[in-house]
Design a protein that fits this description.
By secondary structure, the chain is α+β, with helices and mostly antiparallel strands. The protein folds into two domains: about 120 residues, no CATH class; about 130 residues, Immunoglobulin-like, CATH 2.60.40. Helices cover about 55% and strands about 25% of the residues. It is built from three helices and ten strands, in the order αααββββββββββ. It has a four-stranded antiparallel sheet with strand order 2-1-3-8, with no helix packed on it. It has a four-stranded antiparallel sheet with strand order 7-4-9-10, with no helix packed on it. A two-stranded antiparallel sheet has the order 5-6. Helix 1 runs parallel beside helix 3 and helix 2 runs antiparallel to helix 3. The chain is rod-shaped. The termini are far apart.
Length: about 300
């Protein structure tokens, strides 16, 4: 019986040992599972806290800048995707370490997002400041340009005034240099066969006109050759002019009108009073009536008179 009892006792001891080992393994497995569940729950809480803090921090960075606000919304969407991926990892026992690494990456990514937003905001503030400076420079340049335009207009006005004054002065000097004439007389003459002439008043008996005038002394005129243009207008208002007899055209500098003259005579003027005469023999009959005679010097009227042929 003793061997049997020893065998039974040994078997019982083996059974107790196996049951004890099995119980301890089950207990360790249960403890490990509980620890894993607790770690997963802790990580879920940490994930939720970090996610909420990240969302709040990003929301706090929003402002009036639409570009920055759009970037923050994009970053929030990316964080939501990453949170969902970490939540899926926490459901798997073997992925807790990976999930923990992803949670740490989430915190790092949020810091990168905030730094990116701050850099963007700094760049935009700098650009805004530069733009403000450019606007100020533009306004300053615009004001400077407007001042220059006003100054230029003033200078142009002053220049135009000076030019006008110069022209007026030049014209006044030119007018002052005109050699005036006086004692204008016109006599009708009949040319005889002998070549001698006789004074006539009737137009039918007049062959030529003798025009005489006396120059007036003018101290403003330098001695030298002076040209006098004689213009004779008949009773019909027509200019007596024949090109072959020395007639031509001149510009009346006072009116700017071009007029025909009958004849031109030159004289070596010495600032004295001298009588000058010339003959006008057109070879055609003269009309009866009142004639007008004008003497021009340097383009200005130097004297005028009239005469009549009956």
């Amino acid at each position: 019986m003793i061997p049997i009892a020893l065998t039974i006792g040994f078997l019982m001891l083996v059974a107790v040992a196996w049951l004890t080992y099995n119980s301890m393994s089950t207990t360790r497995a249960l403890e490990q599972k509980v620890a894993e569940l607790e770690e997963a729950e802790r990580l879920r809480g940490e994930l939720e806290n970090q996610y909420n803090q990240a969302i709040a921090e990003l929301e706090g960075l929003k402002g009036d800048n639409e570009q920055i606000n759009a970037l923050i919304d994009q970053q929030k969407a990316e964080l939501a995707v990453q949170k969902n991926r970490i939540s899926d990892l926490l459901r798997e026992k073997k992925q807790l370490d990976v999930a923990l690494g992803e949670i740490r990456n989430l915190k790092t990514k949020v810091a990168e997002y905030v730094a990116q937003i701050e850099n963007l905001r700094t760049e935009q503030e700098q650009l805004s400041m530069e733009n403000t400076n450019l606007v100020q420079e533009r306004d300053s340049l615009t004001a400077h340009l407007q001042n220059k335009v006003v100054e230029n207009e003033s200078l142009n006005m002053a220049k135009a005034q000076l030019v006008n004054e110069k022209e007026q002065l030049s014209k006044a000097v030119e007018v002052g240099s005109v050699v005036k004439v006086k004692e204008i007389s016109v006599t009708g003459q009949k040319v005889k066969k002998s070549g001698k002439t006789a004074t006539r008043e009737k137009s039918k008996r007049v062959d030529q006109l003798k025009v005489c005038f006396t120059t007036i002394a003018n101290d403003l005129v330098r001695p030298g050759t002076e040209k006098f243009f004689i213009r004779i207008v008949n009773p019909k208002g027509e200019n007596l002019a024949i090109d072959d007899l020395g007639s031509g055209a001149l510009v009346n500098k006072k009116s700017g009108e071009e007029i025909q003259y009958t004849q031109m005579t030159e004289y070596d003027y010495m600032n004295d009073e001298t009588q000058l005469c010339f003959l006008w023999n057109p070879g055609v009959p003269f009309q009866s009536g009142q004639y007008q005679v004008e003497i021009y010097n340097k383009g200005f009227l130097a004297g005028s008179g009239n005469f009549e042929l009956k």
